[in-house]
Design a protein that fits this description.
heterodimer, A: alpha+beta, Sufe protein. Chain: A, four-stranded mixed sheet, 5 helices, B: alpha/beta, 2 domains, seven-stranded mixed sheet, four-stranded antiparallel sheet, 16% strand, globular, binds pyridoxal-5'-phosphate
Chain lengths: 150, 424
Amino acid sequence: MSFVNELYQEVILDHNRQPRNYGDLPDATEKAEGYNPLCGDRVTVYIKRDGDVIQDVKFVGAGCAISTASASLMTETLKGKNLAQARVLFEKFRDMVMGNLDMEMDDEDLEKLVVFHRLSDYPVRVKCATLVWHALLSALEKEEKAVSTE
Amino acid sequence: MDSIERAEATVSDRLTGPCRIDVDRLRGDFPILSSTVYGKPLVYLDNAATTQKPAVVIETLRNYYEQVNSNIHRGVHHLSQVATDEYEKSRRTVQRFLNARKVSEIVFVRGTTEGVNLIAQTFGRSRLAEGDEVVISAMEHHSNIVPWQMVCEQMGARLKVIPMNDRGELLIEKYAGLLGPRTKLVSFVHVSNALGTVNPAREMIQLAHERGIPVVLDGAQSLPHLKVDVQELDVDFFVFSGHKAFGPTGIGAVYGKLKHLEAMPPYQGGGDMISSVSFEKTTYNEVPHKFEAGTPNIAGAIGLGASLEYLAGLDLDVVAGYEEGLVEYAHEALLEVPGLRLIGTAEKKAGVVSFVLESVHPHDIGTILDREGVAIRTGHHCAQPVMDFYGVPATARASFAFYNKREEIDILVQGLGKAIEVFR
Ligand SMILES: Cc1ncc(COP(=O)(O)O)c(C=O)c1O
């Protein structure tokens, strides 16, 4: 497989073309914005929480394929998870894209997010994928201000 | 290249008119240009971010540290004398290169950013009062926006912005209309790093001078591409970065008319910028030393001298003509790419071609091209207001130097084809 296809796997291309859970969430309980000053990418995440459980999560924003697909796949993965699970998932995801996760041992809860594992070969693109997650966590931590990858 | 190919290249070089430069020979002067990335020959098209360095500059730096290294303006010993002489010789090189009247009109700084800050905080601050206005343009680099915002904030002055049209050309009548009794300063970019537009500096300076308003030119992108003559421009200040003109990083210069420099308060306080210090009173050194507090970037200044001498050894009009041909060729080749939109189509451009693709975000373009060995810049190019104007978060930008070739533009275009293929 060429490098291009390793990075831009079909799942990523598909979620870039047709992002899932795109749009705002009128009855959101939390909302946060993420901004990557390096490339100008902006994303807003909306969460609807019922107690500890993420009932629904959506996003809007314009960005590169990696950031769009990451946002789309994140929303799919998070629905129905509780806050503690979301945090653990983020940490694992971050470790994976930074190349700090043993993919043989430790990848099962990442589900579809494993398509991003080759990102560790592209350090400058890691922030594209983590931006939406940073926004999510700041929403969960109820920081209203925009988070930045810098 | 064999001789047949060379003959063909000459024919296809007709666009550049009578201009002839032996690009293959010039490329030999730049060691990095023969390197490979990911096993592919490097195609370096990020010259607006920084240019590559010819061997003579690298040698000069090496030679300085091996044989000269010493502090300047303060030792009686031999090496200090040699270092001082070399440093001051570079100042004369800058003076000659810009055709400044006097060598004392050249102040060494870290680069364009520091240069603009210096002017804003000395000249600007001493001229501005509450309600005054500073005029800049819609296509400025952040380094020619933020320093003016800061001084305006400090002094209660206001920033006015010269608008542009969709091609990325400043509206000169609107500009003239902005110049009023409260306008104390005009500062604009000579060549835009985001759009490539060459602004009509001479005409714009004249318009300001008719109303007695001094003008600062951001020459970061013009000096490497155009012949700059500060006397002919009659510009009050001209600022540039050495690293964008084939010299080292961390060095650049401010040209300022002597009458301004002499009247300006110092920038930073410290050693070298004084002639005597007591706890009661300090007397400042004369220009330009008044503006060069502390141990400067001695090696960098000497390296800058070497890069400008190298540039001066080329025929700069021929170089400009050749580069114009490259930009024209790139425009034509890029417009063949489906879904490509050029950002910045001014009548007069230098060195820069910015674009976006319908189906591929600039960041993804950058990554895919990178694996083809092609280095371009993607992002907002430190010119967010320009991005806002065109309604894009970012662009992809190819920027050229005289060592770039049409073949490299062809490789860029092929790479874009691959990107489009992936994202189909
Ligand atoms: C037009 C323009 N002005 C100013 C600058 C700032 O130059 P430096 O970063 O060398 O201070 C740049 C560099 O990107 C530029 O292109």
